[in-house]
Amino acid sequence: MTPATRRRGGDLEAAIFDAVFAQLERVGYRRLTMEGVASEARTGKAALYRRWKSKDELIGDALKHVLPEPPTAPRTGAVREDMLAILGCTRETLLACRGAAFTILKEESEAGKGLVHDVVHERLSRPVRELLHQALVEAAERGEIRPEAATRQIANVGPAVIVYNHLIGGGPLTEAYVESVVDEVLMPIVRP
């Protein structure tokens, strides 16, 4: 039997972050504990408490580790393609963090605010909504959509549909699903 090797640095951090998402999937945000994460990562609680004061700090860092950088404007010249690219970022993020980001937001607190909320808002929610709004404004200027459809309210629809579908367990989050949101929900709303 080979003795266990002690993990340090990046290897230990990766195991801890993976354990965070495994625990979130298994027990949810409210029942996640530092002890459960330590056990899942096969490390001691002390290793966690040396770096993170609370589970929120730990979850926040785990999300920062897996969340992609905020998306940039695709500017393809076609509103449908822009929306597909931007909403693809939402899909990639849900897949990268195993959907934990939005599940946590649902459970995090009565007001839905906290460290995790701030991380998700700054890295994903706000940039996606802003880019979608910008894409709609540019499409309206090109005459591709109705000018009155270039609103923040309509920009919120795509991400809301995707997140809602994820939260209610509406099936796999495939590229085809994102395409259906664009083609069956957003395009009919904005077309002239």
Outline the structure in words.
With 192 residues, this protein is mainly alpha-helical. The protein has two domains: 57 residues, Homeodomain-like (Arc Repressor Mutant, subunit A, Orthogonal Bundle); 123 residues, Tetracycline Repressor, domain 2 (Orthogonal Bundle). It is built from nine helices and no strands. The chain is elongated.
| CATH architectural group of the largest domain | Orthogonal Bundle
Helix content: 55-70%
Approximately what portion of the residues adopt beta-strand conformation?
under 5%
Number of domains: 2
Question: Structural class of the secondary structure composition?
Answer: mainly alpha
Q: Supply the CATH superfamily name of the largest domain.
A: Tetracycline Repressor, domain 2
In terms of quaternary structure, the protein is single chain
- The run of helices and strands is HHHHHHHHH
Number of separate helices: 9
Report how far apart the termini are. Answer: 70 Å
Overall pLDDT score: 86
State the low-pLDDT regions, or none. none
Task: Summarize the structure in short.
It is built from nine helices and no strands.
